[in-house]
Amino acid sequence: MAFQIVEGCVNCWACLPLCPSQAILAVKPHFLIDTWRCNECEGQYADPQCASICPVEGVILDALGIPSNPPGSLTGIPPERRAATRAEIGAR
Amino acid sequence: MLKLQVASRAGVGASAEGCASSGCGGSSAGLSHLPEHIRAKVHNHPCYSEEAHHHYARMHVAVAPACNIQCHYCNRKYNCANESRPGVVSELLTPAQAVKQVLAVAATIPQMAVLGIAGPGDPLANPERTLATFQALAEQAPDIKLCVSTNGLALPDLVEDLCALNIDHVTLTINCVDPDVGAHIYPWIFWKNRRIKGRKAAEILIERQQQGLEMLVARGVLVKVNSVLIPGVNDEHLKEVSRLVKAKGAFLHNVMPLIAEPEHGTFYGLMGQRGPTHEELQQLQDACAGDMAMMRHCRQCRADAVGMLGEDRGAEFSLDKIETLEIDYPQAMARRRQVHAAIEAQRAAAAQPPAKGEILISPTAIKRVRRETRPVLMAVATSGGGLINQHFGQAREFLVYEASAQEVRFIGVRKVGAYCSGPEDCGELDWVLEDTLRALSGCEVVLCSRIGFEPWGQLEAAGITPNGEHAQEPIEQAVASLYQEWVAAGRVAMPSPELARRRA
Description:
The complex is a heterodimer.
Chain A: E1 4-5, E2 24-25, E3 32-33, H1 49-53, E4 60-61, H2 79-90
Antiparallel strand pairs in A: 1-4, 2-3
Chain B: E1 3-6, H1 7-10, H2 36-42, E2 57-60, E3 69-70, H3 95-108, E4 112-117, H4 127-140, E5 145-150, H5 155-164, E6 169-173, H6 179-182, E7 188-191, E8 194-197, H7 198-218, E9 222-229, H8 237-247, E10 252-257, H9 267-271, H10 278-289, E11 294-295, E12 306-308, H11 319-322, H12 329-350, E13 358-360, H13 363-372, E14 376-380, E15 397-403, E16 407-415, H14 433-439, E17 445-447, H15 453-461, E18 465-467, H16 475-488, H17 497-503
Parallel strand pairs in B: 1-16, 2-4, 4-5, 5-6, 6-9, 9-10, 10-11, 14-17, 17-18
Antiparallel strand pairs in B: 1-13, 2-12, 3-7, 7-8, 14-15, 15-16
């Protein structure tokens, strides 16, 4: 059982010092989680630490591949609003 | 006889310390009430003293990437080389790289007096990196003043460490003191190993900010409070913030306009929250000024900005450029001492007569003057030194002064083309006259060293009088003397065009 970091991570370092298992790897193009070390903070914290501080939606997935912070959950920006603005800017 | 006082000189008189500035002496930033030891502390700090910012430079090192809260005006994904606003940086530095960069800048730009850590995240959410950088600089470059900015969440835990390193300037961002207001600004905070959302998050953040403020003040640390003015969210509320932080001992309040464009990808940008107009910002600053010294020269710079306020020479000191650089710091320090002494001599000379802080208007003008003169906003193009010394076409920002029968006061900075408006103009930053005209709204005069024929005509057509006759003169004296000319010519005896429109 392990979390993973996927594309979209901005390498902000917030998660790295919090990980009780030292499972976060500061690599490029973006940080990764060492699946052998990660135990999802089981028995250590009520909430997985990396997923609790990560500022970017959708870049941390749980063991089932489900985003811990789905679109809109952190910023409050409705995903359709973001998509519409992106389309609008692209059309200029 | 009516005395038209230049505000910046008014509060100082013949004081021997040569501190004759809008920032430390005058009513425009209102620092004159402060005790001498505090004024001495901010005397050469460009971000704390309006007058100092004409002479001294600052730099930020981007060593602090992590953040422990989310603000609705911030997007951690954004990083554009041409973008100039808080939270944006080009490359992240390790403490060792940061120290090297600071020494390189201090040797190349001897006016650089202040090193700040401001992000791109929250400096105190990265305590090891931030403190290691300060520690090394305190040892290797003792002539550089160190300061830090924070959202305050981690502040109470780190006050002792900051004091141990002699950090005696802290900027604390406080956007609200009411959790119900805060809930509309901060979607979450990370607190005690959990993500907390909603009102509760704002409540904790506010409590920690107030606690941190009190602790710093109790230890004699200078605290500047930054607030982002968000129309409809905290505009009225900021008056209360100003009163409260002043009562707790903050010495300067900096109310900054919200920067929000859809392209920035922030909550406010995408949800259509607008920023304040120049007039709204000034009105709020004036309303708060009764309670508190207000900062009005903030440029809302990047977390890796280098140079004089409003200028960014960061690209000259990128990692690849400083890697091979050998710096003889003791030698650089000697040169810095000389340069700073020359600046101080110049500042002291500017504080001396003949102007003596008063410009006299003939008694015949008085009768009409008293009741009927109106204040006039004048924009100034300057590249530093407190002089009118920049070509109109090169100005990326204008300082705005208000001249009236009572005083000349500095009221703010208007930037031109500093923010991205999409990928299509990225890399060009084409300066458009239209943009400048918008930035100068409300101003009736632009003072600059020179100006081209074409913009001259367009400015006049827009009701703004270009003026190149005061090139190389001290700003406030030139503004005062031009106002006096206008008084004599009867140009300010009438209501302003705007006022006339409103009445019509």
